[in-house]
Amino acid sequence: MKSKSLLILFWCMAIGACTTFNEDELSTPTQMMTDHHKASEIVVDHSVLGRKLENPYSIGAMRAACEELYPATRGNTAAIDSAITPNYLYVRMLPEDSLEFNKIMDLDYEYYDYPLDYEVLGDPSDYHDPSVPPDEFTWQYTVVPIDDTLPKAVRYEILDTCLIPDNESSATASKEGIDLRQVEQRSYDITNPDESESSSGGSSSSSGSSGSSSSTVSNTGKIMFYSDLARSSSLPVKGIKVRARRFLKIRTGFTRSDGTYTIAGLSDIIGTPRFELRFVNEYGYNMGYGFALIMPYTYNMKQTRSVTLDRNNDADKKAWALAAINDAAYDWYRRCDNEGITPPPGGMRVWALESFEGASTLMLHHGTLPYTTLSDAGLISLMVFAPVTGSGATAITAGAYVLLDLLVDLLGPDITICDIENRTYESIYEDVCHEFSHASHFRNVSYSGIGMAWWADVMDYEANCIVASSFNDPYGTKTSSGNGKCGVTEMWATAVGYIMEYEKMLNNNHKLTSIYKCPNIIASYWFRPGIVWDLYCNNILSLNEIMSCMTSDVDDIASLKSKLMLNFTSKSVPIDTTFVHYGF
């Protein structure tokens, strides 16, 4: 059992997405400029970052450029103050725990793990500030509108006061007859005259010189991933954020269902921006990889606006795995939209892990932890489908245990997918649909207000089965004590995972019919996923109709059968026949 303080921490984490801060918990940038939040020395890892570049958006640089272009402003304090007015602060934040992490994530800024005014020499995706211990959150760099408020409790530092013109806005395009676009261009020339394409701090102009011309890069692109090792077919990366940045100017867009994207205002960036895939989906779920303590994962596209991710390429492996996970998750959300199925709750956290085995839907970020009787070791056993302590413990290293423990304590993932480096796309697809359909069931039972406890009962049962089993079976048997809730949700999720996979891979996205029999691989489970499979494939009930009866009062397969027959009386005979056929 968790300590009381940790339970409180996770409860706060669970409700973090709807946190409202009191005025005394917030400070405005004006307050920040006069308080103790001043920048300390930035320590960098020079294997990733090179020399520090001068920020062209600093007030000092923009004033110097303005005075050079418009001599009448020299020495004219009123004119220069009117024209060059700060509108953003360049800041960095350092969350100390998951509560503070949630607070800054809820602020909806574009965060970067590395400082934005340095050369980028290596891949910044795994960057961690060398002055911060590797088992703690690292600094997060961003730009903040000067009138915004930030939580006082979180440590943050002001790195610079800036004017970042928005040239699509008439309010900032010109002041006092001064063209801010020209000032911005000139500031680039003055601050970084020798910046080359490879020393970008975000990147430079395609000419390789000063970058004083507007970006000629198209504001459209396409993100795909190869679905097989032979690269014979590719699929779109759907609903994922694409970021374009140069220095402190950032623009974003989301990929469409065909993998294409458009970034509005990209022409507003001077020179050629650096592109990144940020694994945040428009449906509201975030995806992380491995044991990095900041999520979501960010893939460095450099100056390339279109890419096809290839798992054969070492640089693409993590992004490929997350793209495969995303493909299944996105399809499940779309199906929920189209068919009225309860979707998973908002703000889902999904984590991909190398090594280990299995997959889990713990819903830790959504509040289950205070209700479970499991220790950290029990939760980890459920995540990796093997006991990690005690006489039957699996051969897991102490270091791996510590990292898994940090994953539980600091980030509280909702869904984990393990052994990601050895999975085929098809295997990943089935597993992810299985877990996300669990998350839909979690949301369905949580409507009643007792869903956390309902779900914690499933977690406790399955973790205890893993520890007691000689082959790490999380499901037990038909006669195992306390198996009722496990039977309901696993019957549902196992069938849905295979239905989604079959319709995607074998039936060209068309509905399965009665000619498709329940796969032998799942037919032997004691909870008989064939019940859901046959109800659906034989057009007896839709997935939405089945889900509508999977509420918190349904705590075993017998009660699910009764509720289905009661709610759909005209179909009670084939419903009963289907359950009886499978022994229920």
Number of helices: 18
As residue ranges, the low-confidence spans are 1-24, 30-36, 169-173, 203-213
Please report which band the strand proportion falls in: under 5%, 5-15%, 15-25%, 25-35%, 35-45% or over 45%: 15-25%
Assembly state (oligomeric): single chain
Average of pLDDT: 86
Largest sheet: 4 strands, mixed
Structural class, please? alpha+beta
Helix content: 25-40%
Radius of gyration of CA atoms, rounded to a whole number: 27 Å
N- to C-terminal separation?
35 Å
Number of strands: 21
The shape is elongated
Topology:
Elements: H1 4-14, E1 26-27, H2 29-32, E2 49-52, H3 59-69, H4 77-83, E3 88-94, H5 98-105, E4 118-120, E5 140-145, E6 150-151, E7 155-162, H6 170-173, E8 174-175, E9 178-179, H7 180-191, E10 220-226, E11 234-236, E12 240-246, E13 249-254, E14 260-262, E15 274-281, E16 286-289, E17 298-302, E18 307-309, H8 317-339, E19 349-352, E20 359-361, H9 376-384, H10 398-411, E21 415-417, H11 425-446, H12 451-468, H13 484-505, H14 520-523, H15 530-537, H16 543-548, H17 557-567, H18 572-581
Parallel strand pairs: 10-18, 16-19, 19-21
Antiparallel strand pairs: 1-6, 2-4, 3-5, 3-7, 8-9, 10-11, 10-14, 12-13, 12-15, 15-17, 20-21
